[in-house]
Amino acid sequence: MTTTTTFSFTQRPLVPYAHDYRHGDSEPYHQHDCAQLLHSLSGVVRVDTIAGCWVVPPGRGVWLPAGTQHAIRITGNVAARTLFIDPLARADLPASCQIVQISPLLRELIVASLDLPESYSPGSRDERVYELILDEIRTMPVLPFHLPEPQSEPLRQLCQQIRQDPGLAWSSAQAASLTSMSERTLNRHFQQQTGLSYGEWTRRARLVEALLRLAQGQPVLRVALDLGYGSHSAFTAMFRRVMGISPSDYFKDV
């Protein structure tokens, strides 16, 4: 049974919340009657919904619209800063789940909001802080850390196999054989059901697994070889292309 958490927004448009998780912590499927922005300062948060898996690297965030059923799994020690937001606070809040970039300004605003009172005077600094947070949320860049789940059972089973052993080559020919499809049909169905090509889905699955393993403190070379990369440099080049920084630098403070 999915539990629902209810918030009251009679005095302010959002409720900030700080919580630290330990490695291995989890939360079963639940939902909120409001939107949620979960920002991870350290560690990695995996969020599962019926639409797929969302992985939040340190320094990023996940946006969950009101009513989204989701479960959480924690890798590493996670310092989470969350905003529960009145879905009626703005008409143009994001309408779908997404991993987002948290700007330095938004990060500091989230921290500042933890000390703000529930009630405030119109035109006050407190009101402007709340309103600026809502402005920043509307412009958050979306990041490619979502692993969408296909709808058809053959593709769901294939994706489960890939997630269980992401280090294999998993060529489209092999995948087509396992699903009794032609390569062309496989790629068409993947694009239709996930919005990604088969090749992009498998690359993203490896990145998701890499983020989880690196957050556990596994050496970069071990992660690279386990996930099928020929060398440390090949994996680092992929990671830097997506994340904008090397894996060792990205996780040095986790």
Described by strand count, sense and barrel closure, the largest sheet is: 6 strands, mixed
Shape: globular
Mean of all residue-level pLDDT scores? 90
Radius of gyration: 20 Å
In spatial order, strands of the major sheet run 1-3-8-5-6-12
Strand content: 15-25%
| Total helical elements | 9
Unreliable runs: none
N-to-C SSE string, H for helix and E for strand: EEEEEEEEEEHHEEHHHHHHH
Structural class: alpha+beta
C-alpha end-to-end distance: 34 Å
- State the share of residues found in helices, binned by percent: 25-40%
Number of strands: 12
Short characterization:
With about 250 residues, this protein is an alpha+beta fold.
Task: List its salient traits.
about 35% helix, 6-stranded mixed beta sheet, alpha+beta, about 250 residues
Describe this structure in words.
The chain is of the alpha+beta class. 37% of the residues lie in helices and 25% in strands. It contains nine helices and twelve strands. The strands form two sheets. The chain has a six-stranded mixed beta sheet with strand order 1-3-8-5-6-12, with helices on one face. The longest helix has 18 residues, at 198-215. The chain starts with a strand and ends with a helix. The model has no long low-confidence stretch (mean pLDDT 90).
